[in-house]
Amino acid sequence: MGLFSRRTVDLQPQQPFTFVVEDLFTITAVGHVLTGRVTSGVMTRGQSAELRLPGGARPVTIRRIESRRRKQEQVLAGAEAGVVLDGFGSDDVPTKPGGDHRVIDSAALRGVELIGH
């Protein structure tokens, strides 16, 4: 392979997956990033899923996956990753009082499951 050649990626077929949320970050120009671990299955960019929030489940789509500091098309069970979801916005982010304003309460999302279809 040459220095600039592209390697082909053998993607696993889309499979149901479970991703358990550990933390939440908001990154300018990226959005809300949920970090955690894929506990089963294969999570693929573009896959539909259900985020099981304390207030009820919300249908979402996997917009972006990052693992090992790189964008990924998919990650397998056991991988730690950060995901950005279409269908999960600012209104869904839990907050708590923080001085004169409200701050993100990422602890409220710890343990929430993202289940792929």
From TrEMBL:
<dbReference type="InterPro" id="IPR009000">
    <property type="entry name" value="Transl_B-barrel_sf"/>
</dbReference>
<dbReference type="InterPro" id="IPR004161">
    <property type="entry name" value="EFTu-like_2"/>
</dbReference>
<dbReference type="GO" id="GO:0003746">
    <property type="term" value="F:translation elongation factor activity"/>
</dbReference>
<protein>
    <recommendedName>
        <fullName>Translation elongation factor EFTu-like domain-containing protein</fullName>
    </recommendedName>
</protein>
<feature type="domain" description="Translation elongation factor EFTu-like">
    <location>
        <begin position="31"/>
        <end position="93"/>
    </location>
</feature>
<dbReference type="GO" id="GO:0005525">
    <property type="term" value="F:GTP binding"/>
</dbReference>
<dbReference type="InterPro" id="IPR050055">
    <property type="entry name" value="EF-Tu_GTPase"/>
</dbReference>
<dbReference type="Pfam" id="PF03144">
    <property type="entry name" value="GTP_EFTU_D2"/>
</dbReference>
